[in-house]
Amino acid sequence: MRRNTSAAAVVAAVLVLAAATACAVDGEDNTNRLRGPVWVKDAGAPEAAGFMRVQVPGGATEVKGAVQDGFQDSVYLLSFAAPTVDAETFTADLRPEGGLRAITPVSSADSVNAELWAHVGLPDPATQERVREGSVCPPCIGDGRRSKVQGIDIDVQDLGGGRSRVYLRATS
Question: What is the 3-state secondary structure (H, E, C) of 29-95?
Fold first, then answer.
């Protein structure tokens, strides 16, 4: 019986090592992947916009972004404030399924993405007033420009005075 227990321990150790090795992609160091999601150092708005294959409007201000490398998926955050007409043109190019719909804000306690947005100094858009939301699955709609993107959650907040804040959260 003792030999079976030792064999089981060896098999378990091999499976754990194999799973950890499988997490490495293209020779990457997988140390961080084993610990859970980590923020990619020095990855900001340019990297997030590049992954999503979007061009932030020229008149945009308060451009913020970050990349979180996760165990299975990575998250790319991008946000900016722009004239409302530019924000509408920008989001229309993403082709959100069913357009954007007004939401009722949730409390901070019910916020699902608060930690993500707090990383770039913003509140979760789901907790804000005058927000419309939508989503898009680029592979589902045949958007070849964004074939590596699994999905993009889109939130647009009316800031007043003809300006809007766009929030994008993409996963790979």
Answer: CCHHHHHCCEEEEEEEHHHHHHHHCCCCCCCCEEEEEEEEECCCCEEEEEEEEEEHHHHHHHHHHHC
CB contact at 8 A, 47 and 40: yes
Phi then psi for residue 157, to 5 deg, are -105, 130
- The answer to whether residues 127 and 143 touch, using CB atoms and an 8 Å cutoff, is no
pLDDT in tens, 124-160: 999 999 999 999 999 888 888 888 899 999 999 999 9
Per DSSP, the three-state class of 11 is helix
Query: What span, in angstroms and rounded, lies between the C-alpha atoms of 145 and 81?
Result: 24
The encoded tokens of residue 62 equal 């308060």
Tell if the pTM clears 0.85, that is, is over it.
no
Task: Summarize pLDDT for 82-96 with one digit per residue, the tens.
Answer: 999 999 999 999 999
Q: What angle do CA 137, 139, 144 make, to 5 degrees?
A: 120
Write out the two tokens for 163.
């300006």
